[in-house]
Amino acid sequence: MSVLSRRRKRVLALAEREQAVAFTAPNLFYLTGFFGGGAAVVHPDKTLVVTTPLEADRARETCKEAEVIVVKKWKGVQLEIEKQLGEGKAVTDQRGVESAKMEAKPELFLEARRFKDEPELERIRKACAKTDKAYETLESVLRPGKTEWELAAEVMKTALEEGLTPSNSDSSLGPIIIASGPHGAYGHSELSGREVKRGDFVVADLFFRYEGYNSDETRTFAVGSVTSEMRKAYAVVREAQQAAIEAVRDGAACGSVHDAAVGVLRKHRMDRYLNHSVGHGVGIDIHESPGIFHGNKVKLGKNDVITDEPGVYFVGKYGIRIEDTLRVDKGPELLTRFTKDLVTCG
Predict the structure, then answer these.
(1) How many Cβ atoms are within 10 Å of 171's Cβ, its own excluded?
(2) Cα(19)–Cα(109) distance, integer angstroms
(3) Phi/psi class of residue 296: alpha, beta or left (left: φ > 0; alpha: ψ in -120 to 50)?
(4) Cis before residue 290, ω within 30 degrees of 0?
(5) What one-character DSSP code corresponds to residue 85?
(6) Is 177 exposed, middle or buried (0-12, 13-18, 19+ CB in 10 A)?
(7) Which value, in Å, is the radius of gyration of the alpha carbons in the chain?
(8) 289 three-class SS
(9) Domains in the chain, please, with CATH?
(10) What tens digit of pLDDT does each residue of 177-207 get?
């Protein structure tokens, strides 16, 4: 059975139906290899992609194991879908298109995508390795006097040369986060014209896609000499991040990974400076299931791909975050490997 056949089977099994309809680009891509405008009608033995002339040629070129049906205008897509469903009923990932034949259950598609198959894992591994190279570039150009925008441009150049594309985070306008000095205290800082100064911490959160699949990695750099207080805080975050890594394994509750990191921060009386959950799933989207947050009893499973990203944020001063992408097995497989030693630049 092919990879796409197994994905089709998984979606239909979760739906407990003989048919499903995917409108969103990530789900369309998961089921067919085509990332664009259209919809996939999933049957047990085949997938149909309904699209318009705008996307028809690209859909035919990139779709795998799917028949492409072209309608003249977008309003005809749903009419064609209803026709293809016949007398049967389906679940869909899109709210607002429900009908007598379609019930919206977008969370079902996210659950189907949760455990990554080998082709997905290979792309995520490559995305992470190439993101490590972007950090090498950043280390080489991070100097006092450079603006956040200038640093981001250097990083983006390397990323594009490596075949990476922006992930388009839903939490920031910028394609990546380069947050210097007090900007580092914002978890999702916007790029600015602020010039990096000696004594800064610079939080760099890089997230890129490779052939449709994401990496997510954060490192915090020192610029010139930083204070002993800053170094101690960095060491605490590093310890917390490692504790969470060590808690990752098949069968562990997602909440226990979060709590492992927070326990270290609490020991050092720094837990009140963490203002977000410790991680999330990664895949076609930068944020996927499962969530790594306190109280989440969902169990991690083999081939979950998640992040581990504790941080502390001192408003008006600086922030520190360290983040890796990991694959879950009997233990963690670390996919992002740029050093987590405190790197001093400039």
Answers:
(1) 11
(2) 13
(3) beta
(4) yes
(5) H
(6) buried
(7) 22
(8) strand
(9) 3-114 (3.40.350.10), 118-345 (3.90.230.10)
(10) 999 999 999 999 999 999 999 999 999 999 9
